[in-house]
């Protein structure tokens, strides 16, 4: 669900909230009954504020993703942490041309968005966590460009 409204002239605020509860209820012989579905956080939320003045637009946004399992077996090492990402962007319209820029992951979070518990291979050494892998949030990224309308 979401809400959007004008705060003052030229400023719009938006907020969204997603609530989800997932459980595997029937999968005979799998040992997975009662587990959470993978990659399904219980809570997601977001908010943004957009400012417009003439041809100039600026926007700041926050996105929250609750901790969740990215491993169908719901092993603790397959659970991500809560995550908040901040982004900003701005644009300026010049008729047929639009200049724009954005900064994604403003605070350069290095959090894992997916975690995959590893297993020591036959003949391998070390412990299972030595073989874990993760997918990390895209690092801070700056983009700029020009849009031309024909």
UniProtKB/TrEMBL annotation:
Q: Name the chain's protein.
A: Uncharacterized protein
Predominant location category: membrane
Q: What is the lineage of its organism?
A: Bacteria, Pseudomonadati, Pseudomonadota, Alphaproteobacteria, Rhodospirillales
The entry's localization annotation reads: Cell outer membrane
Q: Name one GO cellular component term.
A: cell outer membrane
Q: Which domain of life is it from?
A: Bacteria
Q: Which UniProt keywords apply?
A: Cell outer membrane, Membrane
- SUPFAM superfamilies, A to Z: Porins
């Amino acid at each position: 669900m979401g809400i959007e409204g004008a705060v003052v002239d030229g400023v719009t605020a938006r907020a969204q909230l997603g609530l989800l509860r997932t459980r595997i209820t029937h999968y005979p012989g799998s040992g997975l009954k009662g587990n959470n579905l993978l990659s399904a956080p219980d809570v997601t939320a977001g908010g943004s504020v957009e400012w417009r003045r003439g041809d100039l637009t600026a926007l700041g946004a926050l996105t929250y993703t609750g901790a969740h399992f990215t491993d169908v077996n719901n092993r603790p090492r397959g659970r991500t942490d809560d995550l908040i990402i901040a982004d900003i962007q701005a644009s300026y319209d010049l008729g047929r041309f639009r200049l724009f820029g954005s900064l994604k992951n403003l605070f350069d979070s290095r959090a894992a968005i997916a975690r995959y518990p590893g297993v020591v291979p036959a003949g391998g050494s070390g412990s299972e966590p030595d073989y874990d892998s993760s997918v990390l949030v895209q690092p801070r990224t700056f983009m700029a460009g020009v849009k031309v309308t024909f």
